[in-house]
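Per-residue structure
===
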Amino acid sequence: MSTTTYDARGGMRNVWIITAAMTVLAICYTMIIPFLPIYLLELGVPKADVALWSGLVFGITFLIAGIMAPIWGKLADNKGKNGWPCVLALPSLSVMY
């Protein structure tokens, strides 16, 4: 088997795995958002400030994603195919979500 065939097949397999994982992640994230104000009230946020804190908590996800995307991209370009960016991303994703 040539390396080109193997690389193309392995690359598409990885794309499908990442697509499925991100779909599940998005589904879970959107299911949590309606309950966010209730969680914030239980954490002791005053009722008047719940809307502000809900917006901040929801928006920070996209801010961090925008900041980290080029960093992860550069790391992936530098490290190549050895998989370390994916291994390093798992602990940070589990902490963030």
In short: Residues 5 and 11 are 10 Å apart (CA to CA).
